[in-house]
Amino acid sequence: MKKEDLINKWLNNDQLTKQESEAFEKLDVYDSYVKISETAKKFSAADYDTASNLKNLTKVLSNRKKMPQNKSYIKILTSVAAVFVIGIGLYFSFFKDYDTTIKTISDKSTFNLPDSSMVRLNATSTLTYNKKNWENERKVSLQGEAYFKVAKGKKFDVHTPSGLISVIGTRFNIKQRENLFEVVCYEGVVSVTIGDEIKYLRAGDALEYNSNTIKDKTVADKEPKWYYNKSYFFKTPFSRVIKELEWQYGVTLETKNIDPAILFTGNFVHSDIEIALKSITIPMRLKYVINDKTVTLYKE
């Protein structure tokens, strides 16, 4: 990824892959951007008049024809434009909706929200929330997968690209991975809003939304199995098994002569990639080769 694209992705608070995170940390401007980010979190932003500032910048740019076109001037103007773009990015990233972000790559993270609600964030996931406004509105945004134990209090909302989950106090798991959206309720009642449809889940109920189809399910578990560092599958397309292993270990899996739709039943651990690969390849009579962060699965 180009340097400019990498910086823009970070400024927009988009999820970075492990490789992108490592590349971003090696940039010569990394320290500067991190300092700007950390400083920005410590103060409240005044209302930012985007239209007015953009108009002023446009006016400055239009005057370029009237001024000498020397390298010093162009360099200064470029710097001003860069600061303007960074300012807008920081404003929308840190002040508009959220001021706290927790990201995981090939690991997991357990933490408490301001009301002592517990969150266990799975690998390759991002959760954001507004700590300053938490007493007025208990709201988080999730990309990836997380298990929640919500403290009793006001309504608690979880926003995902596929739907809105609302509760008062309960235990539940949300999985938002690409085109798969799944909600499991372990305690209490959860409401799930997908478009114009609202579903209510009670303990043991689950919902899966995939390819514009909602599927109701039931579970017997008291907590998600991934919470204990294992991924389980029952008659699951092998393509989903591969994606789950990629998320857990931060690697890229390539396949040769393998049907991605073939169904797999089994599990793999999150603590050792060699053991995990053996768990999914031996039952399928497959072989694998590890080359740095790329793993190739193939049939002999």
From TrEMBL:
Keywords: Membrane, Transmembrane, Transmembrane helix
Entries under Pfam families matching the protein: FecR, FecR_C
Domain of life: Bacteria
Molecular function per GO: sigma factor antagonist activity
Range of residues in the leader sequence: none
TM ranges: 73-94
Location of the Protein FecR C-terminal domain: 232-297
Residues covered by the FecR protein domain: 103-190
PANTHER family tied to this protein: PERIPLASMIC SIGNAL SENSOR AND SIGMA FACTOR ACTIVATOR FECR-RELATED, PROTEIN FECR
Protein name from the UniProt record: FecR family protein
Organism this protein belongs to: Aquimarina amphilecti
